[in-house]
Amino acid sequence: MTQADKDIERPLGQAVRPARRPWPRFRAGRVVAVAAALCVVAFSGAIALRERPFRNPAAIVVSTPQVEAPAQANAPEMAAAPVEPAAVPDGPSIINVNPPDGSGKGVVIIRDPSELGQNLRVAHLPDKALIEQSETGPLPVRGDDGRRPVDVYARPWSGARGARVAIVIGGLGLSQTGTQEAIGKLPGEITLAFAPQGNSIGRWMQEARRTGHEIIMQVPLEPFDFPNVSPGRNTLTVDASAEENLEHLHWALSRTTNYTGVMNYMGARFSANATAMGPFFAELGKRGLLYLDDGSTARSVAPELALKNRVPFAVGDTAIDGVRNRGEILKKLDELERTARAKGYAIGTGSAFDVTVDAVASWAQEARKRGIEIVPISALTTDPERG
């Protein structure tokens, strides 16, 4: 039959339908390859949209229901400052925080365990659970839950293992003008050490913590040629009884709050005497404080006693302002940088002289551009409790 005959026999009004094309066959390998490519693109986009790497905690506002706790009669007043856990979690922790305005919008904070320390917005407020009231004033103490002042009052840092430098500037509180200049000019990463003989230490502590500084207390220890060379009032001495030295230590510790530990002021003779240093370190371990040895004497028994008494410990590499000259101070700071690049970290100590403060502030700004991280002293301690 011809095509014309077929067309004649076809019912009127029906068009010729084109032949259907078969569906293309997709091979399994191609499907897997396309899916893998889409996953790579999605993952890359997620990373690109992140503001910083995982080391920086991110706060994301989400809609979460506000849970109201049932009212209790005569409920105790909440502590003024939030607290941080002393133990480092195995991974990032998620904390839900509901604001007091009743908006119902919570904040989810993803916290990296390497970033320890107090929220800087409330860092000037003491944690009541870490204070023991005494005749001399408030003393730092471990909390009933095991938290330590060295952890709670530590300034957060990145947790990275690059070249790190800690700089501790001491003598705060002795000069009102000098103290104000140091707090105002030095970047928050610089640790400040307060002299117990200073004035208005509580007020300066709050100002220092508001601007981000970690702080420690200086404790006067007996040097050689004492009392001709004297670090000041209530010096701990080799010949004094353990009880008398503890009284002097408590006086220094009670001068303010919110500090992570102590460092020696002078003390070459005292630091070399294990009998005198034993009760001193036992008290620091009991109270959860760190100890910084300025490194001025090689005969110090501090490392052994710190390990024995579970005291976080660090030793200074160099005093940066032995010569009070800007050029010489900058040379010492450059030495610290070379040390940090060689072994991973370095610690420098100095005093709150105008020339020292100006040199450190200038050097720190440039050092960051060269990849140096300025960290608080608590970040560079050897901590027997953390291994």
UniProtKB/TrEMBL annotation:
<dbReference type="GO" id="GO:0005975">
    <property type="term" value="P:carbohydrate metabolic process"/>
</dbReference>
<feature type="transmembrane region" description="Helical">
    <location>
        <begin position="28"/>
        <end position="49"/>
    </location>
</feature>
<keyword id="KW-0472">Membrane</keyword>
<keyword id="KW-0812">Transmembrane</keyword>
<dbReference type="InterPro" id="IPR011330">
    <property type="entry name" value="Glyco_hydro/deAcase_b/a-brl"/>
</dbReference>
<keyword id="KW-1133">Transmembrane helix</keyword>
<dbReference type="Pfam" id="PF04748">
    <property type="entry name" value="Polysacc_deac_2"/>
</dbReference>
<protein>
    <recommendedName>
        <fullName>Divergent polysaccharide deacetylase family protein</fullName>
    </recommendedName>
</protein>
<dbReference type="InterPro" id="IPR006837">
    <property type="entry name" value="Divergent_DAC"/>
</dbReference>
